[in-house]
Amino acid sequence: MKTIVALSTPSGSGAIGIIRVSGDDCLSIVSIHFPKIKSFSPRKAIFCKFYETNSHVLDEVLLVYFPGPNSYTGEDVVEISFHGSSYILESALKELIQSGAILAKAGEFTQRAFLNGKLDLVQAEAVGDLIASESRSAHDLAMRQMKGSVSDRLQELRQQLIDFAALIELELDFVEEDIEFAQRPALHKLFNDLKAEIEKMLNTFRLGNAIKNGIPLILAGAPNAGKSTLLNRFLGEDRAIVTKFAGTTRDSIEEKFRLGDHLFRIVDTAGLRISNDEIESLGIERSWKLMSEGQIILFLIDPTSCSSEEANKLEEEIVNRSPNATILKILTKSDLWDKMNYLEYFPDALHTGINVDLKNIQTKLSSFVADDHWDGSSDVLIANIRHAEALNSSLTSLNKAEEGLNNKVSGEFIAFELKEALNSLGSITGEVVADDLLSSVFGRFCIGK
Ligand SMILES: Nc1nc2c(ncn2[C@@H]2O[C@H](COP(=O)(O)OP(=O)(O)OP(=O)(O)O)[C@@H](O)[C@H]2O)c(=O)[nH]1
Ligand SMILES: [Mg+2]
Fold first, then answer.
1. Which ligand neighbours the alpha carbon of 270 most closely?
2. Which of 15, 46, 158, 365 has the highest CB neighbour count under 10 A?
3. What domains can you pick out in the chain, each with its CATH number?
Protein backbone atom coordinates (compact mmCIF):
# COMPACT_ATOMS: atom_id res chain seq x y z
CA MET A 1 0.00 0.00 0.00
CA LYS A 2 1.22 3.49 -0.80
CA THR A 3 2.38 5.45 2.19
CA ILE A 4 -0.09 8.02 3.44
CA VAL A 5 0.45 11.06 5.61
CA ALA A 6 -1.88 13.45 7.42
CA LEU A 7 -2.18 15.83 10.30
CA SER A 8 -3.99 13.85 13.03
CA THR A 9 -4.69 16.73 15.39
CA PRO A 10 -7.04 19.64 14.55
CA SER A 11 -5.56 22.27 12.26
CA GLY A 12 -4.74 25.66 13.75
CA SER A 13 -2.19 26.43 16.41
CA GLY A 14 -1.84 24.43 19.61
CA ALA A 15 0.88 23.20 21.94
CA ILE A 16 1.56 20.19 19.72
CA GLY A 17 0.40 18.90 16.35
CA ILE A 18 0.79 15.24 15.42
CA ILE A 19 1.53 14.05 11.90
CA ARG A 20 0.97 10.41 11.18
CA VAL A 21 2.58 8.38 8.40
CA SER A 22 1.51 4.83 7.46
CA GLY A 23 2.45 2.42 4.70
CA ASP A 24 5.07 0.13 3.21
CA ASP A 25 7.64 2.89 2.62
CA CYS A 26 6.91 4.66 5.87
CA LEU A 27 10.38 4.25 7.40
CA SER A 28 12.34 5.04 4.26
CA ILE A 29 10.33 8.21 3.66
CA VAL A 30 10.50 9.38 7.28
CA SER A 31 14.21 8.61 7.64
CA ILE A 32 15.01 11.17 4.89
CA HIS A 33 14.05 13.82 7.45
CA PHE A 34 15.88 12.24 10.38
CA PRO A 35 19.39 11.62 9.00
CA LYS A 36 20.84 11.46 12.55
CA ILE A 37 18.72 8.48 13.65
CA LYS A 38 20.58 5.27 13.06
CA SER A 39 17.82 2.90 14.11
CA PHE A 40 14.15 3.48 14.82
CA SER A 41 13.44 1.50 18.00
CA PRO A 42 9.85 0.27 18.00
CA ARG A 43 7.34 1.95 20.33
CA LYS A 44 9.95 4.23 21.97
CA ALA A 45 9.65 8.00 22.01
CA ILE A 46 12.72 9.48 20.29
CA PHE A 47 13.54 13.18 20.77
CA CYS A 48 15.11 14.39 17.53
CA LYS A 49 15.30 17.10 14.86
CA PHE A 50 13.16 17.11 11.73
CA TYR A 51 15.28 18.22 8.74
CA GLU A 52 13.86 19.65 5.54
CA THR A 53 15.45 18.25 2.38
CA ASN A 54 17.56 21.42 2.12
CA SER A 55 19.13 20.44 5.50
CA HIS A 56 17.34 23.23 7.33
CA VAL A 57 16.02 22.15 10.76
CA LEU A 58 12.25 22.66 10.81
CA ASP A 59 11.53 21.61 14.40
CA GLU A 60 12.57 19.54 17.38
CA VAL A 61 10.08 16.73 17.66
CA LEU A 62 9.12 13.52 19.43
CA LEU A 63 8.84 10.51 17.17
CA VAL A 64 7.36 7.07 17.79
CA TYR A 65 7.67 4.16 15.38
CA PHE A 66 5.07 1.35 15.42
CA PRO A 67 6.17 -1.49 13.14
CA GLY A 68 3.33 -3.36 11.41
CA PRO A 69 1.35 -5.45 12.00
CA ASN A 70 1.24 -4.25 15.64
CA SER A 71 0.09 -0.74 14.81
CA TYR A 72 -3.26 1.01 14.45
CA THR A 73 -3.41 0.46 10.68
CA GLY A 74 -1.58 -2.87 10.70
CA GLU A 75 1.16 -1.24 8.56
CA ASP A 76 4.41 0.47 9.55
CA VAL A 77 3.35 3.70 11.25
CA VAL A 78 5.34 6.70 12.47
CA GLU A 79 3.77 9.42 14.60
CA ILE A 80 5.65 12.69 14.90
CA SER A 81 4.70 15.32 17.50
CA PHE A 82 5.68 18.80 16.31
CA HIS A 83 5.22 22.16 17.99
CA GLY A 84 1.70 23.09 16.96
CA SER A 85 2.36 25.98 14.58
CA SER A 86 0.40 25.86 11.35
CA TYR A 87 3.58 26.93 9.48
CA ILE A 88 5.61 24.02 10.91
CA LEU A 89 2.85 21.47 10.31
CA GLU A 90 2.13 22.56 6.74
CA SER A 91 5.85 22.60 5.91
CA ALA A 92 6.37 19.13 7.42
CA LEU A 93 3.43 17.73 5.44
CA LYS A 94 4.82 19.25 2.26
CA GLU A 95 8.26 17.78 2.97
CA LEU A 96 6.91 14.28 3.62
CA ILE A 97 4.81 14.43 0.46
CA GLN A 98 7.86 15.54 -1.52
CA SER A 99 9.72 12.56 -0.11
CA GLY A 100 7.11 10.14 -1.45
CA ALA A 101 4.08 10.01 0.83
CA ILE A 102 0.60 10.91 -0.38
CA LEU A 103 -1.97 12.90 1.55
CA ALA A 104 -4.45 10.58 3.28
CA LYS A 105 -8.12 10.73 2.43
CA ALA A 106 -10.74 11.16 5.18
CA GLY A 107 -10.76 8.08 7.42
CA GLU A 108 -8.06 6.33 5.40
CA PHE A 109 -5.97 5.26 8.42
CA THR A 110 -9.02 3.56 9.95
CA GLN A 111 -10.02 2.15 6.56
CA ARG A 112 -6.59 0.51 6.31
CA ALA A 113 -7.01 -0.84 9.85
CA PHE A 114 -10.28 -2.40 8.67
CA LEU A 115 -8.77 -3.80 5.46
CA ASN A 116 -5.90 -5.30 7.48
CA GLY A 117 -8.34 -7.02 9.84
CA LYS A 118 -7.47 -4.87 12.88
CA LEU A 119 -11.13 -4.03 13.44
CA ASP A 120 -14.47 -4.72 11.79
CA LEU A 121 -16.70 -2.07 10.25
CA VAL A 122 -18.85 -1.60 13.37
CA GLN A 123 -15.71 -1.04 15.42
CA ALA A 124 -14.27 1.32 12.80
CA GLU A 125 -17.45 3.38 12.85
CA ALA A 126 -17.33 3.36 16.64
CA VAL A 127 -13.92 5.06 16.40
CA GLY A 128 -15.69 7.88 14.50
CA ASP A 129 -18.45 7.95 17.11
CA LEU A 130 -15.93 8.08 19.94
CA ILE A 131 -14.25 11.11 18.38
CA ALA A 132 -17.65 12.77 17.97
CA SER A 133 -19.03 11.81 21.40
CA GLU A 134 -20.38 14.75 23.38
CA SER A 135 -21.55 13.05 26.58
CA ARG A 136 -20.56 10.22 28.88
CA SER A 137 -23.40 7.99 27.65
CA ALA A 138 -22.42 8.53 23.97
CA HIS A 139 -18.82 7.85 24.94
CA ASP A 140 -19.77 4.63 26.78
CA LEU A 141 -21.82 3.49 23.80
CA ALA A 142 -18.95 4.02 21.36
CA MET A 143 -16.49 2.27 23.70
CA ARG A 144 -18.78 -0.75 23.96
CA GLN A 145 -19.15 -0.94 20.19
CA MET A 146 -15.40 -0.69 19.80
CA LYS A 147 -15.03 -3.67 22.09
CA GLY A 148 -17.31 -5.58 19.73
CA SER A 149 -20.59 -6.18 21.63
CA VAL A 150 -22.73 -5.55 18.52
CA SER A 151 -20.33 -7.44 16.28
CA ASP A 152 -20.43 -10.52 18.54
CA ARG A 153 -24.23 -10.58 18.57
CA LEU A 154 -24.37 -10.20 14.77
CA GLN A 155 -21.84 -12.97 14.36
CA GLU A 156 -24.07 -15.34 16.36
CA LEU A 157 -27.08 -14.42 14.23
CA ARG A 158 -25.15 -14.91 11.03
CA GLN A 159 -23.89 -18.31 12.16
CA GLN A 160 -27.44 -19.50 12.80
CA LEU A 161 -28.45 -18.31 9.36
CA ILE A 162 -25.45 -19.95 7.72
CA ASP A 163 -26.33 -23.30 9.32
CA PHE A 164 -29.88 -22.87 8.18
CA ALA A 165 -28.92 -21.91 4.62
CA ALA A 166 -26.57 -24.90 4.45
CA LEU A 167 -29.47 -27.28 5.14
CA ILE A 168 -31.59 -25.67 2.44
CA GLU A 169 -28.67 -25.85 -0.03
CA LEU A 170 -28.26 -29.54 0.82
CA GLU A 171 -31.87 -30.12 -0.06
CA LEU A 172 -31.31 -28.46 -3.39
CA ASP A 173 -28.53 -30.95 -4.16
CA PHE A 174 -30.91 -33.82 -3.53
CA VAL A 175 -33.91 -32.26 -5.16
CA GLU A 176 -34.65 -35.37 -7.24
CA GLU A 177 -34.84 -37.59 -4.18
CA ASP A 178 -37.31 -35.16 -2.62
CA ILE A 179 -35.53 -35.28 0.71
CA GLU A 180 -36.17 -32.61 3.34
CA PHE A 181 -33.05 -32.19 5.47
CA ALA A 182 -34.33 -29.04 7.03
CA GLN A 183 -37.24 -30.05 9.20
CA ARG A 184 -40.11 -27.62 8.58
CA PRO A 185 -41.22 -27.00 12.18
CA ALA A 186 -37.61 -26.44 13.20
CA LEU A 187 -37.17 -24.03 10.29
CA HIS A 188 -40.22 -22.04 11.33
CA LYS A 189 -38.92 -21.81 14.87
CA LEU A 190 -35.54 -20.64 13.63
CA PHE A 191 -37.21 -17.98 11.45
CA ASN A 192 -39.19 -16.72 14.38
CA ASP A 193 -36.21 -16.68 16.72
CA LEU A 194 -34.05 -14.86 14.21
CA LYS A 195 -36.70 -12.33 13.35
CA ALA A 196 -37.38 -11.65 17.02
CA GLU A 197 -33.66 -11.11 17.64
CA ILE A 198 -33.31 -8.73 14.70
CA GLU A 199 -36.44 -6.83 15.70
CA LYS A 200 -35.09 -6.53 19.23
CA MET A 201 -31.89 -5.02 17.88
CA LEU A 202 -33.83 -2.68 15.61
CA ASN A 203 -35.92 -1.49 18.53
CA THR A 204 -32.77 -0.29 20.25
CA PHE A 205 -32.06 2.12 17.38
CA ARG A 206 -34.33 4.88 18.70
CA LEU A 207 -32.44 4.64 21.96
CA GLY A 208 -28.96 4.30 20.48
CA ASN A 209 -29.55 7.20 18.12
CA ALA A 210 -30.83 9.36 20.98
CA ILE A 211 -27.76 8.62 23.07
CA LYS A 212 -25.45 9.44 20.18
CA ASN A 213 -27.14 12.54 18.81
CA GLY A 214 -28.97 13.81 21.89
CA ILE A 215 -32.26 12.75 23.48
CA PRO A 216 -35.01 14.75 21.74
CA LEU A 217 -36.79 17.01 24.21
CA ILE A 218 -39.68 18.98 22.75
CA LEU A 219 -41.08 22.13 24.37
CA ALA A 220 -44.78 22.26 23.57
CA GLY A 221 -47.83 24.17 24.66
CA ALA A 222 -50.14 27.05 23.89
CA PRO A 223 -48.71 30.39 22.67
CA ASN A 224 -47.22 32.48 25.45
CA ALA A 225 -46.94 29.51 27.82
CA GLY A 226 -43.25 30.31 28.41
CA LYS A 227 -41.59 27.75 26.13
CA SER A 228 -38.89 30.01 24.74
CA THR A 229 -38.19 31.37 28.22
CA LEU A 230 -37.57 27.81 29.46
CA LEU A 231 -35.39 27.01 26.43
CA ASN A 232 -33.22 30.03 27.22
CA ARG A 233 -32.95 28.97 30.84
CA PHE A 234 -31.87 25.44 29.91
CA LEU A 235 -29.21 26.83 27.58
CA GLY A 236 -28.15 29.64 29.88
CA GLU A 237 -28.32 32.18 27.04
CA ASP A 238 -30.89 34.27 25.18
CA ARG A 239 -31.18 31.93 22.24
CA ALA A 240 -34.88 32.38 21.41
CA ILE A 241 -36.85 35.60 21.18
CA VAL A 242 -39.22 36.09 24.10
CA THR A 243 -42.00 38.66 23.96
CA LYS A 244 -45.32 39.23 25.65
CA PHE A 245 -47.07 38.60 22.33
CA ALA A 246 -48.62 35.19 21.70
CA GLY A 247 -47.25 33.55 18.56
CA THR A 248 -43.67 34.86 18.85
CA THR A 249 -41.90 31.62 17.92
CA ARG A 250 -42.69 30.64 14.35
CA ASP A 251 -39.97 28.26 13.25
CA SER A 252 -38.64 25.56 15.58
CA ILE A 253 -35.31 26.20 17.29
CA GLU A 254 -33.06 23.30 18.14
CA GLU A 255 -30.01 23.29 20.42
CA LYS A 256 -28.01 20.72 22.36
CA PHE A 257 -27.26 20.84 26.06
CA ARG A 258 -25.72 18.43 28.49
CA LEU A 259 -27.33 17.37 31.72
CA GLY A 260 -25.23 15.08 33.89
CA ASP A 261 -24.02 12.21 31.71
CA HIS A 262 -26.49 12.85 28.91
CA LEU A 263 -26.81 14.98 25.84
CA PHE A 264 -30.24 16.43 25.06
CA ARG A 265 -31.50 17.95 21.84
CA ILE A 266 -34.01 20.54 23.03
CA VAL A 267 -36.49 21.92 20.51
CA ASP A 268 -38.56 25.08 21.03
CA THR A 269 -41.71 25.07 18.93
CA ALA A 270 -44.45 27.43 17.81
CA GLY A 271 -47.30 27.66 20.33
CA LEU A 272 -50.27 25.40 19.52
CA ARG A 273 -53.51 27.14 18.55
CA ILE A 274 -55.80 27.57 15.55
CA SER A 275 -54.26 30.42 13.61
CA ASN A 276 -55.32 32.36 10.53
CA ASP A 277 -51.77 33.48 9.97
CA GLU A 278 -50.28 31.36 7.21
CA ILE A 279 -46.70 31.48 8.53
CA GLU A 280 -47.76 30.72 12.10
CA SER A 281 -49.94 27.82 10.88
CA LEU A 282 -46.97 26.30 9.08
CA GLY A 283 -44.94 26.62 12.29
CA ILE A 284 -47.71 24.93 14.28
CA GLU A 285 -47.87 22.08 11.76
CA ARG A 286 -44.14 21.68 12.25
CA SER A 287 -44.62 21.62 16.04
CA TRP A 288 -47.05 18.69 15.76
CA LYS A 289 -44.69 16.81 13.49
CA LEU A 290 -41.75 17.34 15.86
CA MET A 291 -43.84 16.14 18.78
CA SER A 292 -44.80 12.97 16.94
CA GLU A 293 -41.07 12.20 16.59
CA GLY A 294 -40.15 13.32 20.09
CA GLN A 295 -39.15 11.10 22.96
CA ILE A 296 -39.82 13.46 25.82
CA ILE A 297 -42.33 16.29 25.55
CA LEU A 298 -42.28 19.09 28.09
CA PHE A 299 -45.89 20.24 27.98
CA LEU A 300 -45.97 23.80 29.31
CA ILE A 301 -49.13 25.30 30.74
CA ASP A 302 -49.53 28.89 31.90
CA PRO A 303 -52.37 28.33 34.41
CA THR A 304 -53.10 32.05 34.61
CA SER A 305 -54.35 32.04 31.03
CA CYS A 306 -55.28 28.40 30.38
CA SER A 307 -58.01 26.49 32.24
CA SER A 308 -57.46 22.89 33.28
CA GLU A 309 -60.16 21.84 30.74
CA GLU A 310 -58.30 23.56 27.91
CA ALA A 311 -55.01 22.09 29.07
CA ASN A 312 -56.50 18.57 29.30
CA LYS A 313 -57.89 18.89 25.79
CA LEU A 314 -54.52 19.95 24.43
CA GLU A 315 -52.78 17.16 26.34
CA GLU A 316 -55.19 14.61 24.90
CA GLU A 317 -54.31 15.76 21.41
CA ILE A 318 -50.59 15.62 22.15
CA VAL A 319 -50.95 12.05 23.48
CA ASN A 320 -52.94 11.07 20.39
CA ARG A 321 -50.42 12.46 17.99
CA SER A 322 -47.32 11.19 19.82
CA PRO A 323 -48.35 8.00 21.61
CA ASN A 324 -44.77 6.86 22.27
CA ALA A 325 -43.52 9.98 23.94
CA THR A 326 -43.11 10.55 27.65
CA ILE A 327 -44.99 13.71 28.60
CA LEU A 328 -43.91 15.91 31.47
CA LYS A 329 -46.42 18.59 32.47
CA ILE A 330 -44.99 21.87 33.72
CA LEU A 331 -46.98 24.84 35.05
CA THR A 332 -45.21 28.10 34.24
CA LYS A 333 -45.07 31.61 35.74
CA SER A 334 -45.50 30.36 39.32
CA ASP A 335 -44.21 33.72 40.56
CA LEU A 336 -47.51 35.17 39.36
CA TRP A 337 -49.79 32.76 41.16
CA ASP A 338 -50.53 31.12 44.44
CA LYS A 339 -49.02 27.66 44.09
CA MET A 340 -51.69 25.71 45.92
CA ASN A 341 -54.39 27.17 43.76
CA TYR A 342 -53.19 25.74 40.53
CA LEU A 343 -51.23 22.66 41.59
CA GLU A 344 -54.53 21.35 42.95
CA TYR A 345 -55.87 21.19 39.40
CA PHE A 346 -52.68 19.65 38.01
CA PRO A 347 -51.48 17.30 40.76
CA ASP A 348 -48.95 15.50 38.53
CA ALA A 349 -47.31 18.69 37.22
CA LEU A 350 -44.00 20.33 38.09
CA HIS A 351 -43.75 24.09 38.11
CA THR A 352 -41.37 26.82 37.08
CA GLY A 353 -41.21 30.58 37.30
CA ILE A 354 -38.91 33.52 37.92
CA ASN A 355 -36.51 32.58 40.74
CA VAL A 356 -37.60 28.91 40.71
CA ASP A 357 -34.54 26.87 39.85
CA LEU A 358 -34.69 24.09 37.27
CA LYS A 359 -33.57 21.38 39.70
CA ASN A 360 -36.98 19.67 39.94
CA ILE A 361 -37.32 19.45 36.14
CA GLN A 362 -33.73 18.32 35.70
CA THR A 363 -34.11 15.59 38.33
CA LYS A 364 -37.27 14.35 36.64
CA LEU A 365 -35.54 14.28 33.24
CA SER A 366 -32.63 12.31 34.68
CA SER A 367 -35.04 9.79 36.17
CA PHE A 368 -36.79 9.32 32.78
CA VAL A 369 -33.44 8.70 31.17
CA ALA A 370 -32.52 6.09 33.77
CA ASP A 371 -35.93 4.37 33.62
CA ASP A 372 -35.80 4.01 29.84
CA HIS A 373 -32.12 2.96 29.80
CA TRP A 374 -31.08 6.05 27.90
CA ASP A 375 -27.88 5.81 29.83
CA GLY A 376 -26.59 3.33 27.24
CA SER A 377 -26.47 0.52 29.78
CA SER A 378 -28.13 -2.00 27.45
CA ASP A 379 -25.67 -4.53 26.17
CA VAL A 380 -26.35 -4.33 22.45
CA LEU A 381 -27.44 -0.98 21.09
CA ILE A 382 -27.83 0.01 17.46
CA ALA A 383 -26.81 3.64 17.08
CA ASN A 384 -26.02 3.89 13.40
CA ILE A 385 -28.60 4.38 10.65
CA ARG A 386 -26.57 2.21 8.27
CA HIS A 387 -26.80 -0.70 10.70
CA ALA A 388 -30.54 -0.15 11.20
CA GLU A 389 -31.13 -0.13 7.44
CA ALA A 390 -29.14 -3.33 6.97
CA LEU A 391 -31.05 -5.03 9.80
CA ASN A 392 -34.29 -3.92 8.18
CA SER A 393 -33.38 -5.36 4.81
CA SER A 394 -32.28 -8.65 6.39
CA LEU A 395 -35.69 -8.77 8.07
CA THR A 396 -37.41 -8.18 4.72
CA SER A 397 -35.45 -11.07 3.16
CA LEU A 398 -36.26 -13.36 6.08
CA ASN A 399 -39.95 -12.51 5.76
CA LYS A 400 -39.87 -13.32 2.05
CA ALA A 401 -38.08 -16.61 2.73
CA GLU A 402 -40.63 -17.54 5.37
CA GLU A 403 -43.49 -16.67 3.07
CA GLY A 404 -41.88 -18.90 0.44
CA LEU A 405 -41.62 -21.70 2.95
CA ASN A 406 -45.31 -21.35 3.83
CA ASN A 407 -46.29 -21.36 0.16
CA LYS A 408 -44.00 -24.31 -0.54
CA VAL A 409 -42.03 -22.43 -3.23
CA SER A 410 -38.81 -23.90 -4.55
CA GLY A 411 -35.78 -24.26 -2.30
CA GLU A 412 -33.80 -22.08 -4.70
CA PHE A 413 -35.98 -19.10 -3.90
CA ILE A 414 -35.60 -19.66 -0.17
CA ALA A 415 -31.85 -20.13 -0.53
CA PHE A 416 -31.65 -16.85 -2.48
CA GLU A 417 -33.50 -14.87 0.17
CA LEU A 418 -31.42 -16.42 2.95
CA LYS A 419 -28.29 -15.35 1.11
CA GLU A 420 -29.68 -11.83 0.83
CA ALA A 421 -30.36 -11.78 4.57
CA LEU A 422 -26.83 -13.02 5.24
CA ASN A 423 -25.36 -10.36 2.98
CA SER A 424 -27.30 -7.62 4.74
CA LEU A 425 -26.14 -8.79 8.17
CA GLY A 426 -22.60 -9.23 6.86
CA SER A 427 -22.53 -5.70 5.48
CA ILE A 428 -22.87 -4.32 9.01
CA THR A 429 -19.58 -5.71 10.25
CA GLY A 430 -17.99 -5.54 6.80
CA GLU A 431 -17.74 -9.28 6.20
CA VAL A 432 -19.60 -8.61 2.98
CA VAL A 433 -18.39 -5.43 1.33
CA ALA A 434 -20.29 -3.79 -1.51
CA ASP A 435 -18.34 -1.46 -3.83
CA ASP A 436 -19.49 1.88 -2.50
CA LEU A 437 -19.78 0.83 1.15
CA LEU A 438 -16.27 1.71 2.29
CA SER A 439 -16.19 5.14 0.71
CA SER A 440 -19.53 6.01 2.27
CA VAL A 441 -18.46 4.80 5.72
CA PHE A 442 -14.95 6.25 5.82
CA GLY A 443 -15.81 9.40 3.87
CA ARG A 444 -17.55 10.63 7.00
CA PHE A 445 -14.37 10.50 9.08
CA CYS A 446 -12.02 13.41 9.51
CA ILE A 447 -8.69 13.45 7.69
CA GLY A 448 -5.92 11.99 9.78
CA LYS A 449 -8.08 9.35 11.49
N1 LIG B 1 -43.74 36.35 35.32
C2 LIG B 1 -43.30 35.42 34.46
N3 LIG B 1 -43.38 35.66 33.15
C4 LIG B 1 -42.94 34.71 32.29
C5 LIG B 1 -42.41 33.47 32.75
N6 LIG B 1 -42.08 32.71 31.68
C7 LIG B 1 -42.39 33.44 30.60
N8 LIG B 1 -42.90 34.63 30.96
C9 LIG B 1 -43.37 35.71 30.07
O10 LIG B 1 -44.38 35.19 29.23
C11 LIG B 1 -44.32 35.78 27.93
C12 LIG B 1 -44.22 34.68 26.88
O13 LIG B 1 -43.03 33.96 27.06
P14 LIG B 1 -42.37 33.11 25.88
O15 LIG B 1 -41.24 32.36 26.48
O16 LIG B 1 -42.09 33.94 24.70
O17 LIG B 1 -43.58 32.14 25.56
P18 LIG B 1 -43.69 31.06 24.38
O19 LIG B 1 -44.40 29.90 24.92
O20 LIG B 1 -42.36 30.83 23.76
O21 LIG B 1 -44.64 31.83 23.37
P22 LIG B 1 -44.82 31.61 21.79
O23 LIG B 1 -43.48 31.63 21.17
O24 LIG B 1 -45.65 32.78 21.40
O25 LIG B 1 -45.56 30.35 21.61
C26 LIG B 1 -43.08 36.69 27.96
O27 LIG B 1 -43.49 38.00 28.21
C28 LIG B 1 -42.28 36.16 29.12
O29 LIG B 1 -41.45 37.13 29.72
C30 LIG B 1 -42.34 33.27 34.17
O31 LIG B 1 -41.91 32.24 34.67
N32 LIG B 1 -42.81 34.26 34.97
MG1 LIG C 1 -41.69 31.07 21.89
1. 1
2. 365
3. 4-104 (3.30.1360.120), 136-204+382-442 (1.20.120.430), 210-371 (3.40.50.300)
